[in-house]
Amino acid sequence: MKRTVEVAHLDAAWRWVLRLRDEQATPEDLAEWLQWYEADESHRAAFEEMQSFWHETGHLVAGDEEAEVAALLAGRVSAQAQPVLRPWWQRPVAALAASVLIATVAVGWVLSSQRSAPVSTTVDVRETWLPDGSTIELAAKSAVNSRYTDSTRLLVMEGETGEAYFSVARNPKRPFIVQVGTMRVQALGTAFNVRRADDRVVVSVTKGLVEVSVPRADGSGEPVKVGAGNRIVWEVSGDSTPTIVPATAASTLAWKQGRLEYHNEPLAAVIADVNRYSRQPIVIEDEAAGRILFSGTVFTRATDVWIESLPQVFPVRLEPRLLGGLYLKSRD
Q: What is the residue range of 79's domain?
Protein backbone atom coordinates (compact mmCIF):
# COMPACT_ATOMS: atom_id res chain seq x y z
CA MET A 1 0.00 0.00 0.00
CA LYS A 2 2.81 2.40 0.85
CA ARG A 3 4.33 1.95 -2.61
CA THR A 4 0.94 2.71 -4.26
CA VAL A 5 0.62 5.89 -2.23
CA GLU A 6 4.16 6.93 -3.20
CA VAL A 7 3.40 6.35 -6.88
CA ALA A 8 0.26 8.45 -6.52
CA HIS A 9 2.26 11.27 -4.95
CA LEU A 10 4.87 11.11 -7.68
CA ASP A 11 2.19 11.11 -10.35
CA ALA A 12 0.55 14.20 -8.80
CA ALA A 13 3.94 15.89 -8.45
CA TRP A 14 4.75 15.19 -12.10
CA ARG A 15 1.50 16.79 -13.18
CA TRP A 16 2.35 19.84 -11.06
CA VAL A 17 5.81 20.13 -12.64
CA LEU A 18 4.26 20.22 -16.11
CA ARG A 19 1.43 22.50 -15.04
CA LEU A 20 3.73 25.10 -13.45
CA ARG A 21 6.00 25.10 -16.49
CA ASP A 22 3.08 25.74 -18.82
CA GLU A 23 3.01 29.26 -20.27
CA GLN A 24 -0.70 29.41 -19.39
CA ALA A 25 -0.06 28.88 -15.66
CA THR A 26 -1.89 31.44 -13.50
CA PRO A 27 -1.47 32.81 -9.98
CA GLU A 28 -4.44 30.62 -9.01
CA ASP A 29 -2.49 27.57 -10.20
CA LEU A 30 0.42 28.68 -8.04
CA ALA A 31 -1.79 29.08 -4.98
CA GLU A 32 -3.35 25.64 -5.52
CA TRP A 33 0.09 24.06 -5.97
CA LEU A 34 1.45 25.72 -2.84
CA GLN A 35 -1.50 24.40 -0.80
CA TRP A 36 -0.84 20.88 -2.12
CA TYR A 37 2.92 21.21 -1.61
CA GLU A 38 2.65 22.32 2.03
CA ALA A 39 -0.08 19.81 2.93
CA ASP A 40 2.22 16.82 3.41
CA GLU A 41 5.92 16.06 3.73
CA SER A 42 5.64 13.33 1.09
CA HIS A 43 4.18 15.87 -1.35
CA ARG A 44 7.24 18.04 -0.97
CA ALA A 45 9.61 15.08 -1.38
CA ALA A 46 7.70 13.87 -4.46
CA PHE A 47 7.79 17.29 -6.06
CA GLU A 48 11.57 17.56 -5.62
CA GLU A 49 11.94 14.06 -7.06
CA MET A 50 9.92 15.01 -10.12
CA GLN A 51 11.87 18.22 -10.58
CA SER A 52 15.02 16.11 -10.83
CA PHE A 53 13.24 13.59 -13.05
CA TRP A 54 12.19 16.37 -15.44
CA HIS A 55 15.81 17.51 -15.83
CA GLU A 56 17.18 13.97 -16.18
CA THR A 57 14.81 13.12 -19.05
CA GLY A 58 16.05 16.11 -20.97
CA HIS A 59 12.63 17.73 -20.65
CA LEU A 60 11.43 15.46 -23.47
CA VAL A 61 8.62 13.64 -21.70
CA ALA A 62 5.35 15.26 -22.70
CA GLY A 63 2.20 15.33 -20.62
CA ASP A 64 0.37 13.17 -23.19
CA GLU A 65 2.61 10.15 -22.66
CA GLU A 66 0.89 9.20 -19.41
CA ALA A 67 1.44 5.47 -19.76
CA GLU A 68 5.16 5.85 -20.32
CA VAL A 69 5.44 8.31 -17.46
CA ALA A 70 3.50 6.02 -15.13
CA ALA A 71 5.82 3.14 -15.98
CA LEU A 72 8.88 5.28 -15.39
CA LEU A 73 7.47 6.49 -12.10
CA ALA A 74 6.67 2.98 -10.95
CA GLY A 75 10.18 1.83 -11.80
CA ARG A 76 11.62 4.84 -10.03
CA VAL A 77 9.73 4.03 -6.85
CA SER A 78 10.51 0.30 -6.98
CA ALA A 79 14.20 1.20 -7.03
CA GLN A 80 13.76 2.93 -3.70
CA ALA A 81 13.53 0.38 -0.90
CA GLN A 82 12.73 2.88 1.84
CA PRO A 83 12.43 6.47 0.59
CA VAL A 84 14.05 8.85 3.05
CA LEU A 85 12.22 12.14 3.48
CA ARG A 86 14.57 14.91 4.52
CA PRO A 87 13.42 17.53 7.02
CA TRP A 88 12.30 20.73 5.30
CA TRP A 89 15.24 22.71 6.67
CA GLN A 90 17.70 20.35 4.96
CA ARG A 91 16.14 20.58 1.51
CA PRO A 92 17.49 22.94 -1.16
CA VAL A 93 15.53 26.16 -1.30
CA ALA A 94 16.32 26.71 -4.95
CA ALA A 95 14.01 23.97 -6.31
CA LEU A 96 10.96 25.38 -4.55
CA ALA A 97 11.64 29.02 -5.34
CA ALA A 98 12.44 28.21 -8.95
CA SER A 99 9.11 26.43 -9.33
CA VAL A 100 7.21 29.30 -7.76
CA LEU A 101 8.60 31.78 -10.23
CA ILE A 102 8.08 29.51 -13.21
CA ALA A 103 4.38 29.75 -12.44
CA THR A 104 4.41 33.54 -12.68
CA VAL A 105 6.98 34.30 -15.38
CA ALA A 106 7.14 32.34 -18.63
CA VAL A 107 10.59 32.19 -20.18
CA GLY A 108 11.74 31.02 -23.58
CA TRP A 109 15.44 30.85 -24.35
CA VAL A 110 16.02 31.51 -28.05
CA LEU A 111 19.18 30.26 -29.72
CA SER A 112 19.36 33.03 -32.28
CA SER A 113 21.39 36.10 -33.16
CA GLN A 114 18.20 37.99 -34.01
CA ARG A 115 16.34 37.59 -30.72
CA SER A 116 17.09 37.74 -27.03
CA ALA A 117 15.32 36.12 -24.09
CA PRO A 118 14.95 37.98 -20.79
CA VAL A 119 14.96 36.22 -17.46
CA SER A 120 14.02 38.00 -14.25
CA THR A 121 12.76 37.19 -10.78
CA THR A 122 10.74 38.78 -8.03
CA VAL A 123 11.35 36.03 -5.48
CA ASP A 124 14.44 34.90 -3.61
CA VAL A 125 15.86 32.29 -6.00
CA ARG A 126 15.02 31.10 -9.46
CA GLU A 127 16.87 28.50 -11.55
CA THR A 128 16.80 28.50 -15.35
CA TRP A 129 18.33 26.01 -17.75
CA LEU A 130 19.95 27.35 -20.92
CA PRO A 131 19.90 25.62 -24.32
CA ASP A 132 23.54 24.59 -24.03
CA GLY A 133 23.08 22.85 -20.67
CA SER A 134 24.34 25.75 -18.57
CA THR A 135 22.20 27.04 -15.71
CA ILE A 136 21.52 30.39 -14.05
CA GLU A 137 20.23 30.91 -10.53
CA LEU A 138 18.87 34.43 -10.04
CA ALA A 139 18.51 36.30 -6.77
CA ALA A 140 15.55 38.57 -6.00
CA LYS A 141 14.78 41.36 -8.48
CA SER A 142 17.60 40.36 -10.78
CA ALA A 143 17.44 40.09 -14.57
CA VAL A 144 19.58 38.52 -17.30
CA ASN A 145 19.17 38.77 -21.06
CA SER A 146 20.50 35.98 -23.30
CA ARG A 147 21.95 36.68 -26.72
CA TYR A 148 23.14 33.38 -28.15
CA THR A 149 24.73 33.11 -31.58
CA ASP A 150 26.52 30.26 -33.34
CA SER A 151 29.86 31.61 -32.10
CA THR A 152 29.13 33.25 -28.73
CA ARG A 153 26.99 32.73 -25.63
CA LEU A 154 26.39 36.25 -24.31
CA LEU A 155 24.35 36.97 -21.19
CA VAL A 156 23.72 40.56 -20.14
CA MET A 157 22.85 41.40 -16.54
CA GLU A 158 20.26 44.16 -16.62
CA GLY A 159 19.71 46.98 -14.13
CA GLU A 160 21.90 48.72 -11.60
CA THR A 161 21.71 45.92 -9.03
CA GLY A 162 21.30 42.16 -9.13
CA GLU A 163 22.92 38.81 -8.43
CA ALA A 164 23.21 35.54 -10.34
CA TYR A 165 25.09 32.25 -10.16
CA PHE A 166 26.21 30.71 -13.45
CA SER A 167 27.10 27.02 -13.94
CA VAL A 168 28.65 26.84 -17.38
CA ALA A 169 28.64 23.92 -19.80
CA ARG A 170 32.09 23.79 -21.37
CA ASN A 171 32.33 24.63 -25.07
CA PRO A 172 35.62 26.28 -26.15
CA LYS A 173 34.20 27.05 -29.60
CA ARG A 174 31.38 29.17 -28.15
CA PRO A 175 32.69 31.43 -25.37
CA PHE A 176 30.34 32.03 -22.44
CA ILE A 177 30.42 35.73 -21.55
CA VAL A 178 28.49 37.64 -18.90
CA GLN A 179 28.33 41.39 -19.43
CA VAL A 180 27.73 43.61 -16.38
CA GLY A 181 27.70 47.23 -17.43
CA THR A 182 31.07 47.73 -19.13
CA MET A 183 32.57 44.67 -17.43
CA ARG A 184 32.89 41.37 -19.25
CA VAL A 185 33.31 38.06 -17.46
CA GLN A 186 34.35 35.16 -19.68
CA ALA A 187 34.02 31.66 -18.30
CA LEU A 188 36.81 29.20 -18.93
CA GLY A 189 34.80 26.09 -18.01
CA THR A 190 33.54 27.07 -14.62
CA ALA A 191 30.88 28.14 -12.12
CA PHE A 192 30.81 31.65 -10.73
CA ASN A 193 28.65 34.24 -8.99
CA VAL A 194 28.15 37.84 -10.11
CA ARG A 195 26.78 40.52 -7.77
CA ARG A 196 26.24 44.09 -8.90
CA ALA A 197 25.46 46.95 -6.53
CA ASP A 198 25.46 50.15 -8.58
CA ASP A 199 29.07 50.64 -9.76
CA ARG A 200 30.50 47.89 -7.58
CA VAL A 201 30.73 44.42 -9.14
CA VAL A 202 31.87 41.33 -7.25
CA VAL A 203 32.68 38.16 -9.20
CA SER A 204 33.24 35.06 -7.04
CA VAL A 205 34.50 31.83 -8.62
CA THR A 206 33.50 28.50 -7.09
CA LYS A 207 34.87 26.24 -9.85
CA GLY A 208 37.37 26.61 -12.65
CA LEU A 209 38.55 29.97 -13.94
CA VAL A 210 37.12 33.23 -15.29
CA GLU A 211 38.67 36.15 -17.14
CA VAL A 212 37.40 39.59 -16.13
CA SER A 213 37.97 42.78 -18.09
CA VAL A 214 36.75 46.37 -18.13
CA PRO A 215 37.66 48.04 -21.43
CA ARG A 216 38.83 51.65 -21.04
CA ALA A 217 38.27 54.52 -23.46
CA ASP A 218 41.98 54.63 -24.26
CA GLY A 219 42.03 50.93 -25.09
CA SER A 220 43.82 49.93 -21.90
CA GLY A 221 42.59 47.40 -19.41
CA GLU A 222 44.24 44.02 -19.36
CA PRO A 223 42.00 41.03 -18.53
CA VAL A 224 42.37 39.61 -15.03
CA LYS A 225 42.09 35.87 -14.41
CA VAL A 226 40.38 34.69 -11.23
CA GLY A 227 40.48 31.07 -10.07
CA ALA A 228 38.22 28.99 -7.87
CA GLY A 229 38.11 30.03 -4.22
CA ASN A 230 38.64 33.71 -5.02
CA ARG A 231 36.61 36.79 -5.79
CA ILE A 232 37.42 39.98 -7.63
CA VAL A 233 35.94 43.32 -6.57
CA TRP A 234 35.83 46.06 -9.17
CA GLU A 235 34.43 49.60 -9.15
CA VAL A 236 33.64 49.69 -12.85
CA SER A 237 32.87 53.41 -13.23
CA GLY A 238 36.22 54.76 -12.05
CA ASP A 239 39.89 54.05 -12.52
CA SER A 240 40.20 51.98 -9.36
CA THR A 241 42.38 48.90 -9.33
CA PRO A 242 40.48 45.63 -8.88
CA THR A 243 41.22 43.58 -5.80
CA ILE A 244 41.25 39.80 -5.52
CA VAL A 245 40.56 38.16 -2.17
CA PRO A 246 39.80 34.59 -1.01
CA ALA A 247 36.14 33.58 -0.96
CA THR A 248 34.50 30.36 0.19
CA ALA A 249 31.65 28.83 -1.78
CA ALA A 250 29.53 28.78 1.39
CA SER A 251 29.85 32.53 1.80
CA THR A 252 29.45 33.26 -1.91
CA LEU A 253 26.23 31.27 -2.23
CA ALA A 254 24.72 32.08 1.17
CA TRP A 255 22.13 34.26 -0.59
CA LYS A 256 20.47 31.09 -1.91
CA GLN A 257 19.69 30.17 1.72
CA GLY A 258 18.45 33.66 2.59
CA ARG A 259 21.68 35.16 3.96
CA LEU A 260 23.67 38.07 2.56
CA GLU A 261 27.20 37.91 3.94
CA TYR A 262 29.68 40.79 3.83
CA HIS A 263 33.22 41.55 4.93
CA ASN A 264 34.30 45.20 4.91
CA GLU A 265 31.84 46.22 2.19
CA PRO A 266 30.69 49.84 1.76
CA LEU A 267 27.26 50.41 3.23
CA ALA A 268 26.14 51.79 -0.14
CA ALA A 269 26.74 48.40 -1.78
CA VAL A 270 25.07 46.53 1.06
CA ILE A 271 22.01 48.80 0.93
CA ALA A 272 21.77 48.29 -2.84
CA ASP A 273 21.55 44.52 -2.23
CA VAL A 274 19.15 44.82 0.70
CA ASN A 275 16.80 47.01 -1.35
CA ARG A 276 16.12 44.03 -3.61
CA TYR A 277 14.57 42.22 -0.64
CA SER A 278 13.21 45.01 1.55
CA ARG A 279 9.63 46.32 1.61
CA GLN A 280 10.90 49.81 2.42
CA PRO A 281 13.70 50.86 0.06
CA ILE A 282 16.56 52.91 1.49
CA VAL A 283 18.05 55.95 -0.24
CA ILE A 284 21.52 56.97 0.93
CA GLU A 285 21.48 60.74 1.30
CA ASP A 286 25.22 61.46 1.54
CA GLU A 287 28.45 59.82 0.42
CA ALA A 288 29.92 59.69 3.92
CA ALA A 289 27.16 57.33 5.06
CA GLY A 290 27.61 55.18 1.96
CA ARG A 291 31.34 54.77 2.56
CA ILE A 292 30.90 53.25 6.04
CA LEU A 293 32.23 49.68 6.00
CA PHE A 294 30.00 46.83 7.10
CA SER A 295 30.87 43.26 8.07
CA GLY A 296 28.19 40.77 9.02
CA THR A 297 25.10 38.91 7.83
CA VAL A 298 21.77 40.26 6.65
CA PHE A 299 18.86 37.80 6.61
CA THR A 300 16.73 38.45 3.55
CA ARG A 301 13.49 37.75 5.40
CA ALA A 302 14.39 40.15 8.20
CA THR A 303 15.69 43.17 6.31
CA ASP A 304 13.40 45.56 8.20
CA VAL A 305 14.97 44.53 11.50
CA TRP A 306 18.46 45.06 10.09
CA ILE A 307 17.56 48.46 8.67
CA GLU A 308 16.06 49.62 11.96
CA SER A 309 19.26 48.61 13.78
CA LEU A 310 21.57 50.76 11.64
CA PRO A 311 21.38 53.94 13.80
CA GLN A 312 22.30 51.84 16.83
CA VAL A 313 25.44 50.49 15.17
CA PHE A 314 26.66 53.31 12.91
CA PRO A 315 26.71 57.13 13.12
CA VAL A 316 23.66 57.43 10.86
CA ARG A 317 20.01 58.25 11.15
CA LEU A 318 16.89 57.17 9.26
CA GLU A 319 14.21 59.56 8.05
CA PRO A 320 10.96 58.72 6.25
CA ARG A 321 10.53 59.69 2.59
CA LEU A 322 7.33 61.24 1.28
CA LEU A 323 7.11 58.62 -1.46
CA GLY A 324 7.76 55.74 0.90
CA GLY A 325 10.90 54.12 2.17
CA LEU A 326 13.63 55.79 4.19
CA TYR A 327 16.57 58.15 3.83
CA LEU A 328 19.85 57.08 5.38
CA LYS A 329 21.93 60.10 6.48
CA SER A 330 25.07 60.71 8.46
CA ARG A 331 24.33 61.69 12.03
CA ASP A 332 24.87 65.38 12.79
A: 2-90
